[in-house]
Amino acid sequence: MNCVKDILDEIGIKITSINDSGFAQFCPVYRNSDNPKGASINLKNGWTTDWSLNENFPIEVLVEKMTGKKPDKKFINKISSLDLDIINDESEVKFWSKDSLLHLLPDHSYWINRGISKETLDFFQGGVSHSGKLYKRYVWPCFDRHQRIVGFTGRDLTGKNEIKYKHEGKSTNFLFGLYNKQNDEFLILKSILKSSHLILVEGPSDSVACFDEGITNVLPTMGLNISKSMMSFILGVNPSKITICYNKDEKFNGQNAAVKNYTRLFEYFPESNLEIRTPQKNDLSDDKSNIKNFFNQAPDDIISLFREKYLRCKSDVKQKMSQKEVNVGKVLSNGQ
Predict the structure, then answer these.
(1) Distance CA 98, CA 139 (A)
(2) DSSP-based three-state secondary structure for 201
(3) Nearest to 247 by CA among 222, 209, 200, 279
(4) Which helix (H) or strand (E) holds 199?
(5) In terms of Cα–Cα distance, which of 175, 176, 178 is closest to 193?
(6) Cβ atoms within 10 Å of 247's Cβ, excluding its own
(7) CA-CA distances (angstroms) from residue 330 to 278, 301, 304, 323, 325?
């Protein structure tokens, strides 16, 4: 039996309809509603949307709303079996012990010199690795929903390595920072849900810089692609606004990827929910003091970005624009 359905049965929620995508509608009786379609839940991962309240929350919160108390061990065990982070086969995923964090040296000088506060660095629980694959890199752990370490991402400190970031573990399973806790709360997750606004950046340094400036609804895609686990999370929380904020590269890698990922998200979200913002410098962490002002300014003109990429790809055979991107560009242009 589907585990989500099993949990719904146990807490007294009756599904009124299910669509082909695996989303079920139900009456949010926890707030004395009589609307049979007032809320919906993703039967794959348990993410719930209360449409009248415009709230998104995980199934743990739904259990608490219905029972009046936090999930007990029985529910926790069932919730733990859900594919919440869309890891296809957990038997193939390596988990690291929390003790591995003890091997990271508490040398934060690199980031402190770049204007990041000690409080922020403590939140992300990083340090310098003194051995192994990430030797002499500043390393941050990546947690899953159950506070297990699913890997590490390490930033080069020497300036001599061509690869700025290296990972240990499968980076497509990383939702960096999302499940770090402060005062027993997932602070970044709470911020995304409360604001219904998700900002996507390329790498951890941008995410950390934004966090330090009080912009806490930020997740890095750990590169230029939105992974399956990231897309699952985005669809689960169904934000009202998604901002893509990739690097401003001389070779246009970030700009091209922003258009590509806009196209991917355009399949699921209306144009009014999506925007692209290009940093004035290479990335947000390079212009940290201006981050708040940056997000207060008007976003980029989307149609211009699509046209610019089209022209770049037309003149440079090494750069490609997919037919899907071309089609979305036409749709946007026709809507002017």
Answers:
(1) 14
(2) strand
(3) 279
(4) strand 197-201
(5) 178
(6) 23
(7) 22, 14, 12, 11, 9
Of 34-48, 126-140, 192-206, 293-307, the range with the lowest mean pLDDT is: 34-48
Q: Is 58 helix (H, G, I), strand (E, B) or coil?
A: coil
- In eight-state DSSP terms, residue 97 is -
Determine the residue type at 58. Answer: P
**Please, are residues 261 and 309 in contact by the beta-carbon 8 Å criterion?**
no
Nearest Cα to Cα of residue 174 among 85, 108, 237, 110: 85
- DSSP character for 29? G
Expressed in angstroms, the distance from the first to the final Cα of the chain is 48
pLDDT digit string, tens, across residues 257-312: 999 999 999 998 999 999 999 998 989 999 999 999 999 999 999 999 999 999 99
And the tokens for 178?
């999302």
In DSSP notation, 259-293 reads HHHHHHHHTTS-GGGEEE---SSSSGGGGGGGHHH
Q: What DSSP letter does each residue of 178-191 carry, written as one string?
A: TT-EETTEEHHHHH
Coil, strand or helix: which one is 162? coil
As given in the structure block, the two tokens for residue 294 are 């940056």
CA distances from 223 to 171, 220, 257, 292, 309 (A): 9, 8, 9, 23, 19
DSSP secondary structure code for residue 82 in this structure: S
Q: How many residues does the chain have?
A: 336
State the Cα–Cα distance between residues 72 and 59, nearest whole angstrom. 13
**What is the Cα–Cα distance from 207 to 177, expressed in whole angstroms?**
8
> What is the β-pairing status of strands 241-245 and 15-18?
unpaired
Reported in sequence order, the residue ranges of the chain that DSSP labels E, i.e. its strands, are 15-18, 23-26, 39-42, 48-50, 55-57, 104-105, 127-129, 137-143, 149-156, 165-168, 181-182, 185-186, 197-201, 218-220, 241-245, 274-276
| Beta bridge pairs of residue 129 | 104
